[in-house]
Write a structure and sequence with these properties.
With 203 residues, this protein is an alpha/beta fold. The chain is 28% helix and 14% strand. It contains four helices and seven strands; from the N terminus they run E-H-E-E-H-E-H-E-E-E-H. The strands form two sheets. Strands 1-2-3-4-5 form a five-stranded parallel β-sheet, with helices on one face. A two-stranded antiparallel ribbon has the order 6-7. 30% of the residues are buried.
């Protein structure tokens, strides 16, 4: 599916900022439709539980949900994810909902650490599988892993897995990728390949 997305992770309750965020989204979606009426118009949002319905989003065709339940501290409990996705479906029954971001860092110094340790390759595998299990059971139109390949970010990035040993600081690498920066495949790459290719593109 190709869509015109007008923003990524603005203030997640735009109805509370009518003169700033809501106004921008209203104008942006309208102008995007005028420029190209052939494609759906979307916006990507921060996935946060227990937010009230945002009437601003009803102007869109699709919502992209960036969610990191079970990874970052502000959405620590992974078990809240299924309920959150059901809340989103209840709030926006007419919109296509796509999980546009999810993932977990897999860092080289923790490659062989146990599954319980965030940052290990085993945890990335575990987190991918459990997230896809929830996504498959939810009323979603799709899910996209973030990100396929590692990339450079700002010095000191931790990515939710805690402080690094001194020899790995200052870190400048975002390591949620299924491929390393150099293009080598992490174990989770194979899980993602098998999971995504098992679903036909056109049922």
């Amino acid at each position: 599916m190709i869509t015109h997305s007008v923003a990524n992770e603005l203030w997640s309750r735009p109805d509370e900022r009518p003169g700033i965020t809501r106004r921008y989204l209203e104008v942006a979606q309208r102008e995007a439709r005028e420029l190209d009426p052939t494609l759906p118009i979307s916006v990507d949002i921060n996935g946060r539980p227990h937010h009230p319905e945002q009437f601003t989003y009803h102007d869109f065709d699709m919502l992209g949900i960036n969610q990191y339940f079970g990874w970052y501290s502000w959405v620590r409990n992974f078990d809240d994810l299924a309920l959150y996705l059901q809340e989103m479906r209840d709030h926006y029954p007419q919109l296509a909902l796509v999980m546009t971001e999810f993932g977990a860092e897999a860092r080289p110094e923790l490659a062989d650490a146990p599954v319980e340790e965030k940052g290990s390759y085993a945890f990335q595998n575990f987190h991918f599988q459990r997230t896809m299990d929830v996504a498959d059971a939810a009323a979603l139109s799709g899910a996209i892993y973030w990100t396929v390949r590692e990339f450079e970010i700002f010095p000191g990035w931790r990515g939710g897995a805690g402080r690094r040993p001194p020899e790995f600081e200052p870190n400048t690498r975002h390591q949620k990728g299924l491929l390393t920066y150099e293009g080598e495949k992490k174990p989770a790459w194979y899980l993602a390949r098998d999971r995504f290719t098992a679903t036909p593109l056109y049922p």
